[in-house]
Input
Amino acid sequence: QVQLVESGGGLVQVGGSLRLSCSASRNILSFRGMGWYRQPPGQQRELVATMTSDDSTNYLDSVKGRFTISRDNVLNKVYLEMNSLEPEDTAVYYCNAWSMDTYGSRLDYWGQGTQVTVSS
Output
């Protein structure tokens, strides 16, 4: 069973920065990709940033230029560097990893989430 554990969330003022970390219980290169999602209060979960095994990245439009996803293949960690934080970034942030089963179906794994609150 895959375990993903997030850390680094907290309370920050507008314009501040945070770095989220996600530790995986197995070699992250075994996944097709990893990423970060968030769920703002009263809203649906949305993709924030993803990175595939070949280093291709994808970002939510509203975070482009402010957030950066990266990984450490030795430590089996994925990071989300968040700068110039805005109140609209307030959400529970979830680490995600995905792979494919033998039938070609996507398998998703999720962390427990970490709260990020941006105060104005």
